Write the structure tokens for this entry.
Amino acid sequence: MNTPVEQLPDDLASALALLAEERARRVAAEAEAATAKAEAASAKALVSHSEALIARLKLEIEKVRRDLYGSRSERKARLLEQMELQLEELEADAGEDELDAEIAASASTVRAFERKRPSRKPFPEHLPRERVVIAAPASCPCCGSA
């Protein structure tokens, strides 16, 4: 909050209330940032997993084509080997990203909602105070038990 010095409160109670409000905003912003970071890590893990799945399916398609139509040349065999290596790398990256997402999700903590306390003024000193105590009945009016 960019409050000019002239607008800052002079009394201690108002200054403490302003400080508490600023702290609450900061904590909320930090929690929101941690949540966003965890969501980003989860999205990255999902993308890595999807890329690995796509690569695996492409490899399976090429293998089925090779089995169905026969091998065309040595170049295709090298391409299949290269695709298998890329698939292994993508699966390893996907595993790392999932681990990062789990760490980010466990690191983000969401604070419980804290209700603001009402800022009532105390009961005026000049008004009289009476304590009224109502005695409980000795027996129940409905059933008559003690």
In short: The radius of gyration is 34 Å. The chain has two helices and no strands. The CA atoms of residues 13 and 19 lie 10 Å apart. Residues 10-107 form one domain.
